[in-house]
Fold each of these.
Amino acid sequence: MTQTQRNSQSDPYGNRPTSTKLPPLETGDHLSRAEFERRYEAMPYLKKAELIEGVVYVPAALRFKSHAKPHGWLITWLGTYEMATPGVEMGDNPTVRLDLDNDPQPDIVLLIDPAAGGQSRISEDDYIEGAPELIVEIAASSASIDLHTKKQVYRRNGVQEYVVWQSLDNKLDWFWLNEGEYVALSPDADGMIRSRMFPGFWLDVVALCAGNMTQVMQRLQVGIQSPAHAEFVQQLAARRGANP
């Protein structure tokens, strides 16, 4: 399909055909979600753009040590848990339709299959709609928005757990939604944080910040082999069986 053909298609909401001369997305634009998605669709070369509280954010090019490498480590950690937990899905940089003013593109999401009781769903045009249970952001230059505006958007929309790794400061924050407010989870005496939503999903924060991924993965395996994780897997299977 040519670029002109893509730009002349109707938008995903069934409105008028998209103009072939749509303005490009630029940081600071104030747009509706529908218009944001129209312009994003017309820019296939653009890899990441977000709509946060009705304002467009187009991030700068991503650097290796401050973003790409920590992103890869966290993908390995989350992906290992996903493989061990049928009914749980991990996604890399998906656009998430949270509400009419917010179309974020988190670095990583972990969600429960809707058939197993998850709170989000996959739309007919293959977007996440609603709040994934867990969102992870790697915050290098984006720490100010990740820990403030985005955090409030995720809290308001019911993202149950929110992890922010400030890679430049080598600091990790893990928030849990408790009675409508985010509460910071602190590492225990062994440097471990244990997810409240995903039994067996453990993170050795000290090892991660030290760059010791071998220990991070070893400690995760202990969580995956725990009775709590086995019980969670059984619960997910029972829910999926009840919702064929």
Note: Residues 1-19 have pLDDT under 50 and may be disordered.
Amino acid sequence: MIGKYKFNMSCINLKNSPDAKIMIRAANWVGDAIMTTPVIRAIRKNFSKAQITVLAKPWVIPVYENNPYIDDIMFYDNNGRHRRGVGTLKLAKDLREYHFDLAILMQNAFEAGLISFLGGIKERVGYNTDARGFLLNRSIKLNPALKKGHLIDYYIGILKGTSLEDDGRDLDLFLSESDREFANQFLKQAQFDLSKPIIGINPGATGGTAKRWFPQRYAKLCKKLAKKYNAKILIFGGPSDKELGEFILGLSDGCCINIAGQTTLGQAFALIEKCSLFVTNDSGLMHAAAALNINQAAVIGSTDFVATSPSNENSIMIRIPVHCSPCLKDVCPTDHECMDKISVDMVLETCEFLLDNSRSQS
């Protein structure tokens, strides 16, 4: 048994109760949120009649808003009503109005335990991390093996620690028809030849430059791919990546279209779904492409490739082991050797393999 306590559901009879209310505290980053989706699917499997609500910060809501296993999404207004301090008490007050029976905490922070406790939730389930064990009446002792594995398994460990059934490791990402229609219209207006490969690159990454392969190399890669496959290439990213996208655009001899910061997250998901190939750093969009089962070349340097590698079989990690990796730093303090050793030709070879192999199977 992984958990410190055997999870006894008979006290509130949630599994068969149509009145049961469950709150899932979402992870705070897009990639992490996507990696929790197997748990959400399993919670629905375990509690088929329950009302399931996800409490999420605004930037991860697109991960959940079309998910059929969720009944409602509660907006965590961290920059307004729920701002840290008095806002935490307001959030607890808002939770009390829902009368939740069970809280399952994907987020490991002390605050997640505190708000579920102050919110009067009867059963509070999560890892005993961040000194919050006393706030959880179902406190799960973390199996050391999970610390060394993939985050998907780490999140599934919450289920196993409470004697609930899992439902496999497959990621879920459900897109709206409006976002899919946006993607169709965008490609039409941009005059993409749909008989040719659509290639996306994601040169940014949240949390600093250490996770980023060099933009000059992305530009060189784009020119080589565009020439060989007669393809147009989309540059993905958020608002903070717009300037980076423009820099790559300026070096790419007109083969790229910069959409960084020009789409919603849901629209970006829909455009990734259209891609024949996605080339990316370790990022939230990398996990989106994995959930959508897109051919993917993932350039990995400073991050923990065991914990956060893309989970679909048609993803290939491009990584050169160096003595200081994974350092998990935001900015490389030395010579960025982990990325410098990854050449354009190395990434190009991986891209060619993925594209040529998928074309031969179609």
Note: The radius of gyration is 22 Å.
